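BUG-59 | component: ligand-complex export | severity: low

The export step for zinc ion jobs runs without errors, but we want the raw record kept on the ticket for reference. Input record follows.
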Amino acid sequence: MAEVMKGFCVRCKQTRELQDAKEITLKNGRRALKGKAMCEICKPKGGTVVFRILPALKK
Ligand SMILES: [Zn+2]
């Protein structure tokens, strides 16, 4: 699936598309999205790692 993942880039203070975004599980069991923001400001610096906490799955 080519779903566009977005996250808040702390360097730009804006929501950006994430590259290599993947879902991870935190130690406390919560799901989060981890990816890299490749915006024009951050890309020359190798991108900014962005975390986004995902809502818990509803049962
Ligand atoms: Zn950025």
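Assignee comment: Attached the raw record above. The beta strands are 6-9, 14-25, 31-37, 48-53.
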